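Example for reference:
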Amino acid sequence: MRALVTGGAGFIGSTLVDALVANGAQVSVVDDLSRGQRAQVAEAADFHQLDVVDERLVALVASIAPEVVFHEAAQIDVRRSVAEPVFDTRVNVLGTVNVLEACVRAGVRRVVFASSGGALYGDTDVLPTPETHPSRPASAYGAAKLAGEAYGSVFQQVGGLEFVALRYANVYGPRQDPHGEAGVVAIFAERLLRGEDAVINGDGEQTRDYVYVDDVVAANLRAAETPTLGAYNIGTGRTCDVNQLYALMAQTAGVDRPARHGPAKPGEQRVSCLDASLATDRLGWQPRVVLEEGLSRTVAWFAEQRRAQ
């Protein structure tokens, strides 16, 4: 397989690149390095530093001529999307349309799009939430992911492009960025290992569905190969609130210091949990790594990074 991964120097993207290379794929990466790290990209992959909104992307994709494009590049900070909706729209809507247009012109067979379960559905009436639930995004980020899926459907109908959207739950694991607002697992891991206070926003009873990055990568590989198209939730169906998450991570890190509670973040989603049974039925995918094991692996990775420094 000839594959192109946008955002391939980032957390999920670089892990996906590793798996593709290990499976014998010929892999190219496009990343502007605004958040990703060049050092995370496998040496066997062909790297191109470029923003996905850049008009030169069309010619680049044509020169690579991939069979499958995994579109992972995104502005991922929900709170920044609320504060800067125009910027979020530029990256997450215009960038996605630019990728889709480049794919159609280059004759790409399939695009696998990194969408969002929690941000796209918003607070829901049904838990775990199935794909049939109405989409009620409460942020520009969620709205942009919904728009990306809509554009993917249009390019599928008009341009003959096969389009699969994977609606991720809260992805965590090694290489997650501990800086900024995204990635509570990475933030907690770094602060616990540094002996710093971890801060929980509000009462800590907001719940999330945490899915390990290797399981997300496995879903992408399945989505690239199976005949089925459409949108699929990629989650565990298991909820964990932030207080429980911190307790598990503190125990893993050997820390008995309690977290501090700060003010709640206005507009923060209270509940999110995805029903991934459709992905099991049609993609042959299911999560393998339970939360306790995934957190142990993640804390161990962050600890190793600290020792290496």
